[in-house]
């Protein structure tokens, strides 16, 4: 059984997206939420590069991937900084606890 | 002067009239707190704009005078200096200028004057832009800017919850109407690929009748909301929390006319739509009558004037419904002058006495003689007493209504004329001639007098402009007046029109009704039994005929829905991601069912 390179890429993409989504759906720790978001984003970046290569325009896919990486980094830094602030002010990182404190 | 020179000056005058006040608004904001400089700047810009707008009048033509390509769907920022545009811009700028001058005394010592003057100038520019714009989308933009200025100025005393509530109410109601205007504009764009008003009016005949009807009624809703007509009338009295010069400028003389302007502008386009003209006529008639009856029972001086504004705007809308565009615009001119005068007079009284309740006034004729005379002139014009401007224009409206509207509507309007005389006399008597309640009043200040005297003079003589005014319309609005012949009749037309009005039997019937209305007030003790008989009706009228209850119900329903939907805003990241995943799955399902994007 010959394994196509695209099959491997697709499996990786689905794996990353599934892990990321699963994490976002059930994880309550803010830091871990950020990690799950990262995994999810890596899956989408991979699919962009793959889509560019498959359609014969690799440069487009790669430049989009670079753009997303930059934005993603900024989002992550901001999210982690907010998480630190949340921890300082409320003493917890549990998203439910934070919501309760607000009310 | 060669035509090229004329074109050049129009090209400059049009954008200057619209944007000079905005420059002034910015300058006033920058000038900040410095009291004297601030007022001098505001007055300079307001007077300059008034002069520009008057210079624009002789340049009126039916061709677009200025245009700037904005690109894409926005089309062009273009101004059309036709009869409607130049004269309504002049009304906005001149009355705006007088309101600014009046404010020098009225707002003395108030906090936030730079905000106040800057917003007033911003409004004057936006109002000129609204009436001069030849691009429907830009008109919507100016329309909403005037609404925003109105909101900010109603809520000017933003530590007063009533002022804040009144402002929000005005913004929401006129905003709803603005949505109708925007929807109509977008439908027009979808049909002809342009927002150009002359192009639309030319091609409207080729529209599917159904679509044209939708656009026509959307515009009617927009106009009714902006001009506080039935069933949107309730926002205007609540807007009286604004400083009084603002009530005079925005809520009597200019912004509330935008709806009447919209209907008049597009009357030739929509009048073939079945039922449109009759609906307009009914909206005007119902507003005129209901508002007049509410003015009769109100005790707040400014609310009386607000209801009377709704009522007089109803006269104009009624005239448009009867196909009398010129008569409606002529009444608009008269009304702008005498109602601005009444509001500024009321402002002088309120500033001096410190209350708006007419029951706490009385006997002010002695302490404020000039204000009393000015207010009396405005009141007599409002009541329709000859030879003041309100008499001539109201008679013209009534006669055109009798000629081309249903007879029962004419009767209702005639009763309204009587009610108008009744509530006007009641207000004048309660404020100036009733036995005085203990108080100390002082005459209006010099800046107030400077604004009151020209308006009082205007209320006496503005009707003499009927002839030139009619010529202006005939010359520049071929779509509205296809029967126009080229030669201008000038002042001679004024005398012809005056003679026509004086020789019509309907005029004397209306004057008779005015006299009856006045007599009812004079002999009110003899008519007290009517009051007791109609106590129920009076209570209903005081409660605004239940429209407040409807508003209350709607706002409660919106609030309840919001509270109910709050459950979905858990703020929990897991729930939000879950909702997103479900939405993506649903979308994918739809795409699969429909058979892929783009088939």
Give an overview in words:
The complex is a heterodimer of chains A (103) and B (599). By secondary structure, chain A is mainly α. Chain A has one domain: Helix Hairpins (Orthogonal Bundle). Chain A has four helices and no strands. The termini of chain A are far apart. The mean pLDDT of chain A is 88. Chain B is mainly alpha-helical and 599 residues long. Chain B folds into two domains: 540 residues, no CATH class; 39 residues. Chain B contains 26 helices and two strands. Chain B has a two-stranded antiparallel sheet. Classes of the chains: A mainly alpha (103), B mainly alpha (599). Chains A and B meet through helix 1 and helix 4 of A and helix 26 of B.
Please supply descriptive tags for the structure shown above.
heterodimer; A: about 100 residues; Helix Hairpins; 4 helices; about 85% helix; B: about 600 residues; mainly alpha; 2 domains; 26 helices; globular
Could you provide a short overview of the structure?
The complex is a heterodimer of chains A (103) and B (599). Chain A is built from 4 helices and no strands.
Secondary-structure blueprint of this entry?
The complex is a heterodimer of chains A (103) and B (599).
Chain A: H1 5-26, H2 30-54, H3 58-90, H4 95-102
Chain B: H1 3-31, H2 35-56, E1 66-69, E2 76-79, H3 83-106, H4 113-132, H5 136-154, H6 161-192, H7 197-203, H8 209-226, H9 235-238, H10 244-253, H11 257-270, H12 276-297, H13 301-321, H14 325-353, H15 364-367, H16 369-383, H17 389-404, H18 407-433, H19 446-461, H20 466-476, H21 491-503, H22 505-522, H23 528-533, H24 535-542, H25 547-565, H26 573-594
Antiparallel strand pairs in B: 1-2
């Amino acid at each position: 059984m010959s394994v196509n390179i695209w099959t491997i890429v697709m499996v990786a993409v689905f794996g990353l997206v599934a892990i990321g989504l699963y994490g976002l759906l059930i994880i309550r720790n803010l830091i871990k939420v950020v990690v799950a978001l990262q995994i999810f984003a890596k899956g989408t970046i991979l699919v962009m590069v793959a889509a560019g290569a498959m359609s014969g325009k690799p440069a487009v896919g790669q430049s989009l991937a670079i753009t997303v990486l930059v934005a993603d980094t900024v989002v992550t830094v901001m999210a982690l900084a907010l998480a630190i602030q949340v921890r300082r002010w409320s003493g917890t990182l549990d998203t439910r606890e934070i919501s309760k404190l607000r009310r | 002067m060669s035509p090229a020179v004329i074109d050049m000056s129009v090209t400059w005058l049009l954008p200057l009239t619209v944007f000079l006040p905005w420059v002034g608004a910015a300058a006033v904001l920058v000038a900040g707190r410095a009291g004297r400089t601030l007022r001098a700047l505001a007055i300079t810009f307001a007077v300059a704009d008034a002069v520009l707008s008057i210079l624009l009048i002789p340049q009126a033509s039916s061709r677009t005078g200025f245009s700037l390509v904005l690109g894409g769907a926005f089309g062009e920022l273009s101004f059309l200096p036709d009869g409607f545009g130049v004269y309504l811009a002049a009304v906005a700028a001149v009355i705006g200028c007088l309101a600014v001058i009046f404010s020098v005394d009225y707002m003395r010592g108030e906090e936030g004057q730079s905000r106040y003057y800057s917003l007033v100038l911003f409004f004057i520019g936006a109002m000129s832009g609204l009436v001069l714009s030849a691009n429907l989308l830009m008109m919507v933009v100016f329309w909403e800017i005037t609404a925003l200025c109105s909101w900010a100025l109603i809520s000017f005393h933003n530590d007063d919850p009533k002022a804040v509530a009144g402002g929000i109410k005005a913004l929401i109601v006129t905003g709803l109407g603005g949505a109708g205007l925007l929807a109509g504009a977008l439908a027009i764009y979808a049909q002809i690929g342009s927002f150009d008003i002359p192009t639309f009016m030319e091609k409207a005949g080729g529209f599917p009748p159904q679509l044209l009807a939708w656009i026509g009624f959307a515009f009617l809703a927009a106009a009714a909301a902006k001009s506080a007509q039935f069933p949107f009338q309730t926002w205007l009295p609540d807007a009286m929390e604004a400083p009084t010069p603002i009530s005079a400028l925005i809520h009597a003389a200019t912004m509330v006319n935008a709806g009447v302007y919209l209907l008049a502008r597009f009357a030739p386009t929509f009048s073939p739509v079945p039922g449109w003209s009759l609906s307009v006529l009914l909206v005007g008639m119902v507003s005129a009558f209901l508002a007049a009856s509410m003015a009769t029972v109100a005790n707040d001086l400014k609310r009386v004037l607000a209801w009377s504004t709704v009522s007089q705007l109803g006269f104009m809308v009624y005239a448009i419904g009867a196909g009398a565009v010129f008569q409606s615009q002529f009444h608009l001119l008269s009304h702008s002058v005498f109602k601005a005068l009444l509001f500024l007079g009321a402002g002088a009284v309120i500033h001096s006495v410190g209350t708006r309740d007419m029951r706490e006034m009385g006997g002010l004729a002695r302490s404020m003689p000039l204000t009393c005379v000015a207010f009396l002139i405005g009141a007599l014009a409002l009541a329709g007493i000859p030879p003041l401007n309100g008499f001539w224009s109201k008679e013209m409206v009534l006669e055109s209504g009798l000629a081309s509207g249903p007879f029962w509507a004419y009767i209702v309007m005639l009763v309204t004329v009587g009610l108008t005389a009744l509530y006007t006399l009641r207000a004048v008597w309660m404020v100036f001639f009733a036995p005085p309640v203990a108080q100390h009043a002082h005459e209006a200040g010099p800046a107030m007098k400077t604004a009151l005297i020209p308006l009082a003079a205007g209320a006496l003589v503005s009707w003499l402009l009927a002839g030139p005014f009619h010529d202006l319309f005939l010359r520049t609005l071929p779509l509205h007046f296809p029967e126009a012949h080229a030669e201008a009749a000038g002042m001679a037309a004024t005398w012809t029109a005056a003679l026509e009005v004086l020789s019509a039997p309907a005029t004397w019937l209306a004057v008779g009704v005015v006299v009856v209305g006045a007599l009812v007030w004079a002999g009110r003790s003899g008519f007290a039994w009517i009051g007791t008989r109609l106590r129920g009706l009076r209570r209903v009228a005081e409660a605004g005929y239940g429209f407040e209850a409807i508003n209350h119900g709607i706002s409660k329903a919106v609030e309840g829905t919001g509270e109910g939907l709050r459950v979905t805003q858990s703020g929990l990241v897991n729930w939000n991601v879950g909702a997103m995943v479900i939405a993506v799955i649903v979308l994918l399902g739809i795409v699969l069912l429909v058979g892929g994007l783009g088939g």
